[in-house]
Amino acid sequence: MLQRFMFLPPAASEHAPRLDFMLELVHWLMLLLFVGWSVYFAVVLVRFRASRNPRASYEGAQGKPAKWAEVGVVIAEAILLLGFSFPLWAERVEAFPQEREATVVHVVGEQFAWNVHYPGADGVFGRRDPAKVDVQTNPLGLDRSDPAAADDIVTLNQLHLPVNRPAIIHLSSKDVIHSFALWEMRVKQDAIPGLSIPVWFTPTVTTEEMRRRTGNPEYNFEIGCAQLCGLGHYRMRGFLTVETPEEFEAWLAEQARYQLGAGEEEEFWQ
Question: Which of 98, 174, 189, 266 is disulfide-compatible with 199, CB 3.0–4.6 A?
Answer without folding.
Answer: 189
